[in-house]
UniProtKB/TrEMBL annotation:
Organism (species): Araneus ventricosus (Orbweaver spider)
Membrane-crossing residue ranges in chain numbering: 72-91, 97-116, 128-151, 163-184
Compartment(s) where it occurs, according to its Swiss-Prot or TrEMBL record: Membrane
N-terminal signal peptide: none
Protein name (Swiss-Prot/TrEMBL): Inorganic phosphate cotransporter
SUPFAM superfamilies linked: MFS general substrate transporter
Membrane topology: Multi-pass membrane protein
Length: 218
């Protein structure tokens, strides 16, 4: 709370992650949203998702920076930046101070990913975002239980070369996940997000509009 108060005095307002609502697009939340996301870990992608949804509802089609920032571009930036930082730790060798600084930089890049894969469920299916997030994050976080076991098995002798193996394994997994998300990731709302009643209503509306366009003027 003291950090929020300090930043607020300097014109930077931090807003915690809120449930999905198109009304979010109508509010002015904070200055420098990318910096806020990286420093605090809170998500600015929610606002952009809401803006995309609101623009599509109004008949617009904003596919520029908003859609890209909450999709593969943001996630790729995280994967490349984090992998480069871990590689920097490898080259820092036994320099503990340099390794600590580079490790902090790697955490900087993890904040960028909050607008990528972390909010994909909001972009793809706002109606089922909670269930999708629980499933995907739960499936992804199970690795956290295995990680200490794997690291302990590799670094039995506490040698630097053993930690280098850990670093390269980490880089490999991060880059592979980034490539998969860049190819198959999407920020578009999926058809299965809508219930049958909404789909039927949209079809009927389109048919009525088509009939009005075809009908001759009286």
């Amino acid at each position: 709370m003291s950090i929020k108060t300090f930043l607020a005095k300097h014109g930077i307002f931090i807003v915690e992650h809120q449930p999905y609502s198109p009304d979010l697009a109508q509010r002015d939340f904070f200055l420098f949203p990318i910096v806020k996301s990286v420093l605090t870990g809170t998500r600015f992608g929610t606002v952009e998702s809401a803006q995309n949804c609101e623009s599509k509802k109004d008949g617009g089609d904003k596919k520029g920076f908003q859609e890209m920032a909450s999709g593969p571009a943001s996630n790729s930036g995280t994967c490349i930046g984090f992998s480069a930082a871990v590689l920097g730790i490898y080259f820092s060798g036994c320099n503990g101070h340099m390794s600590a600084v580079i490790a902090a930089v790697s955490m900087f890049f993890t904040g960028v990913g909050t607008a990528g894969s972390m909010i994909t469920s909001l972009d793809m299916a706002p109606r089922f975002a909670g269930s999708l997030s629980a499933f995907t994050h739960g499936a992804g976080n199970w690795v956290s239980f295995l990680l200490p076991i794997i690291v302990g098995a590799i670094t039995k002798n506490k040698l630097l070369k053993e930690w280098h193996i850990v670093f390269f394994i980490s880089i490999s997994f991060v880059m592979m996940s980034g490539i998969v998300f860049a190819i198959f990731g999407s920020a578009k709302v999926q058809p299965w997000n809508f219930v049958e009643e909404e789909v039927d209503k949209d079809i009927n509306t389109e048919e009525i509009n088509t009939e009005k366009e075809i009908a001759p003027e009286s």
